[in-house]
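Incident log, structure service

09:12 report received: a user says their structure output differs between two submissions of the same chain.
09:20 pulled the input from the user's history:
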Amino acid sequence: MSAVTKKVQGYLPPDVPPWGALLSLGLQHVITMFPATVLVAILTGFDVGVTLFGSGLATIVAILGSRGRIPLYYGSSFSYLAPVIAVVGAAWGGKEVAQVGIVATAVVNVLAGLLIRFTGKAALDKVLPPVVTGSVAIVIGISLAKAALDMASVEWGVAIVTLLGTVAFSVYLRGRGLLGMLPVLLGALLGYLAALALGLVDFAPVLEAPWIAVPAFSFPAFTNPNAWKAVLAIAPIAIATIPESTAHLYQISLYVDHLADELGKPRLNIKELIGLNLILDGVGDAINGMVGGCSGTNYGENNSLMAITRNYSTPVLIAAGGIAIVLAFIGKLSALVGTLPVAVTGGLAIYLFGVIGLQGIALMQEHKVDLFDPRQLAIGAVILVVGLGGVAFEGGNIPFYGFELPAIATAAVLGILLNLLFLIIPDKRGQAVSPAAAAGD
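09:34 re-ran on a clean worker, output below:
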């Protein structure tokens, strides 16, 4: 009986797919990030074209800055919604004033990245052990559940067709060439056809849109006397995106190394680049803040896409960034992508947002987090309840003695503080044992 060699399909970060695959896989990334990135721009009153431009440019710069080693896509972050909307709408504020706060988040991220590069990853792991980053990832994914259902509820039939199609394509086409790596794109096309059949697609915006449309770039109002208020309101939210970004990097590192093992190639250990990753996060915020785009972070949705398709190619991500930039300038093309019905994005989001949460669980499993340890339970429980419970409040802010605390950022901070408490105060055996050490890291 002859042995059968199983063909392993997938792209590691340095891999360059053929041109056709490169562009189609890049377009799939754009479709994945498009709904959330555009929605953040709409909700905050920022220009959609500029936001797409900033997202694409930030991704390309980050990929080049990591020398093609970190496969992450950068888009607008929901974490900043409340403070940015507040600053834009304030009598003393406005979009250009809010941009100052966005640039300030860049400074926070870069300083955090430099500190980590100076102190080493081991120091970061003590502050952000797997139980913290994994729990934060779960909160981020599941906290978006209602947003996914809200979009799907616009037309449940289309959303269900999109969801089931995407799941079927991701499961049954896996390992079957390029088609097996395009489940989200194929699912979106299937949902689009269903929406067309129901008369839910409006092509009027495409007909009305100009072929060339220069985005409305704007410069931050650094000289505005109230700019410091924007800094104080927006920059602290980086406290939430730092563990979020860390979780994303750890997750993608886990999946990349798993694929490398299957391919018989050396592990890349991308997680060792966490300091550089945070610096690049900051560079992305600086780019967006300077041109008039929304503040952002690397995208869990695109991480989910990469985990599903096993495509971690950074040249594909550069192609995606290029497509996003082109969309920002081609009015009709941008308008055509914008005709994608909300219900279709809702069907995709149900799958992708759920995968973000499950990746947090996978991260804790990989690092053997001991959930029989009361310290680990305490940290995870507090993060989950404060984070998930907090997003139920209006604007995702927890009312606290007259203050409005952003739920995900507050959950992350509480988890970090609890972990530090366990580091400082010895356990009953007279030893200060961190949750990271208890997890076997």
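09:41 both user submissions now match this output. Likely a transient worker issue. Closing.
09:42 reviewer note: The radius of gyration is 21 Å. Residues 19-438 form one domain.
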